[in-house]
Amino acid sequence: MIYYVTISFFRTSNCMIFPKTDDVVVLITFLTVCALLLKSYFLAEIISHAFMTYVTKGWIQMNSKLKRLNEMYSITRPSSERIKQYMTLDSYYCMTNSEKFLDETCPKHLKQLLHSSKIGDSLCQIPLFQSVDSYFLTLVIKCSKIIRIPKTEIIYYYGDVTRHFFVLLSGCCEVYNSEDNFEKIVSSVCDLGTLEAIFGIPKKHTVIAASDCD
């Protein structure tokens, strides 16, 4: 259309600005290129606007969801780093390896105590975390001082991992909450509490004051 309008304009008797054919061709080419560039610019502007609107809207929605998730679970920066570290569960997480892990890590006298108690029957049915159990089993039976163990609030997220913290070989424990208020006394061969968390990440702590009460 641009071609025919331009050529008819320059062929009229009233307006012969460029009498040479070469000049007319150059002008038509120039106007055609300008029209194509302008068309491409507006087309790119429309596509860019639509794309940025879609991306911005999606980013705002995702940012809002992440903010609500952060407020709901109170995930701080240190906790988020620990979540990254625990995203890959160790081989001892599998229930089938729990009994093998207990046999390899428990002291002999504690192993006998566990197998002779009702707690021992259920231990091999619970997923065990190597980092928690190896520390807890070796420490809790030897120390008669304040011990801090993880105790988290319940998180319903793709299923919960529930770990029972067990036992004192002898004596008793005074159990305190995170505000250092006394809760209860537990005797030997008793549960001291549970850990309920996603990937075993502790969010709160319970103070356990252990003393030999034999």
From TrEMBL:
Keywords: Membrane, Transmembrane, Transmembrane helix. The keyword Transmembrane helix applies. Residues 128-214 form the Cyclic nucleotide-binding domain. Gene3D superfamilies: Jelly Rolls. It comes from the Eukaryota. The chain crosses the membrane at residues 24-44. PANTHER family: CHROMOSOME UNDETERMINED SCAFFOLD_10, WHOLE GENOME SHOTGUN SEQUENCE (PTHR47823:SF9), ION_TRANS DOMAIN-CONTAINING PROTEIN (PTHR47823). This is Cyclic nucleotide-binding domain-containing protein. It comes from Callosobruchus maculatus. The lineage of its organism: Eukaryota, Metazoa, Ecdysozoa, Arthropoda, Hexapoda.
